[in-house]
């Protein structure tokens, strides 16, 4: 396969040694994921998974700044406003790809060097191995744009230790470098400059098993000394996160934060108060329900939620305020948590009948 890096090729697919390598190649857009990229990655992933000569699959981004900064939100916004098919197709095909990664029979290694948010998390977190570096910047910032932490967030977030997942989902808090691994999002931590050598060593393995891949990754991980002694950034707040975010409703979390009144709690209160109330309630319930679902059921639920967001107001308003006009002053409707009724919420989670996601 050609190693062509022409800008027309938004995704590069090549076989190297024992590995199939997927390279996202939109560096100017921070490797944001669009539908044509998904439509190239999915069939190739399935082909490599079935190919007896391919022993592992590796995914990475070009440009040195980002693994993948998320889905191509602008295109989805335009389509959603115009009632275009993309607002359905993008989420449907993206979630089908997330599931293919989560069920992949071959070792799947994501080199999450640089910005890894939203859709980029979906391309990595469900795979066997996620290698973070000192340049990794992770976040699920969707509640700020009237969306929810999708791409299987309802599966992996509630399974993180304590209530970290709820905290990351509701506040959009950014984790950097080694903290991404300490939080359990990455499995390994390696210096960014060592990634080319790691990739060479991975592709040179002879008919490797998952254990052989793990062994090689571990050998790089233990040699990496960057920030080795550094305490996990959320360590000092874990007790508070676990108690304040252990609640039976979004309103209760807000009450807990107000009641605590300390600097950490007030900072979270301020952050959460800027988010879409509908998104917050949707996200809270998504994680609550997702905690006991398998990945397929989570993605089916999330597809319903994505379409509710496409039908609603807050997603378009959030994108306007954050990405288009950049005034950072969204006018959410409804404007308060109390106004987001159970009835409104139930309708977001309701089956789409024949339009439901089929995995």
From TrEMBL:
Catalysed reaction(s)? 3-hydroxy-2-methylpropanoyl-CoA + H2O = 3-hydroxy-2-methylpropanoate + CoA + H(+)
Give the protein's function. Answer: Hydrolyzes 3-hydroxyisobutyryl-CoA (HIBYL-CoA), a saline catabolite. Has high activity toward isobutyryl-CoA. Could be an isobutyryl-CoA dehydrogenase that functions in valine catabolism. Also hydrolyzes 3-hydroxypropanoyl-CoA.
Q: What class of enzyme is it?
A: hydrolase
Descriptive protein name: 3-hydroxyisobutyryl-CoA hydrolase
Listed Pfam families: ECH_2
Q: Does the keyword Hydrolase apply?
A: yes
Q: Which GO terms describe its biological process?
A: L-valine catabolic process
The metabolic or biological pathway listed in the UniProt record of this protein is: Amino-acid degradation; L-valine degradation
EC number(s) on record? 3.1.2.4
Source organism: Alligator sinensis
As for family, the record states: Belongs to the enoyl-CoA hydratase/isomerase family.
Q: Which residues form the Enoyl-CoA hydratase/isomerase domain?
A: 20-349
Per UniProt, the keywords (alphabetical) are: Branched-chain amino acid catabolism, Hydrolase, Mitochondrion
Mitochondrion as a keyword of this entry, yes or no, is yes
